[in-house]
Amino acid sequence: MDATAAANPLLATTARVVRLTTERWADEDAAAELGDRPLVARALARAALARSSYKAHAEAGTTAATGGDVPSRVQSLLHPPVFHMRRGLAVLASLLMLVSAGSVTVERQGEHLFESAGAPSAQDRFGTPGTRLLSERAHIATNQPGKAGRP
């Protein structure tokens, strides 16, 4: 991600956010593996302090454990983990209902359009009296033996 940010300066903020999110993810994985969040927070703080006391060695090769915003990472490890499942599930359920309602509406409108496209118009179905009479005369004229084809 750093190479992408170096190639395109507009992605520098995105690269920083991705790096911090990845570090927080690693912190949470370590806390889940050990089962002791304060222990991981202390280890992270000690690693950051050790890095600051040995800057010459740290510049040669920095690790992700001591990079980023260490105080906020330690603070978040000292607090219980936050789960946003209820809000996420509510948003997901709302979106699912919205998409379902939209699908039903589109299906009904499409069915209505196809039915109205295939049905004869109201004037053709019921006809005006003049139209009905002309069609009846044409039908009678074609069925009479001597006057075929004449209205």
Plain-language structure description:
The protein contains 8 helices and no strands. With 151 residues, the chain is mostly helical. The protein folds into 3 domains: 77 residues, no CATH class; 28 residues; 31 residues. The longest helix is centred in the C-terminal third of the chain and has 34 residues. It is elongated and about 115 Å long. The model has no long low-confidence stretch (mean pLDDT 77).
Shape: elongated
Strand content: under 5%
Helix count equals 8
Helical content stands at: over 70%
The average pLDDT value, as a whole number, equals 77
Short recap of the structure:
With 151 residues, the protein is an all-alpha fold. It has helices at 2-7, 12-34, 37-53, 55-60, 70-78, 85-118, 122-126, 129-143. It has three domains: 2-78, no CATH class; 92-119; 121-151.
Q: Top keywords for this entry?
A:
3 domains, 151 residues, elongated, single chain, 8 helices, mainly alpha
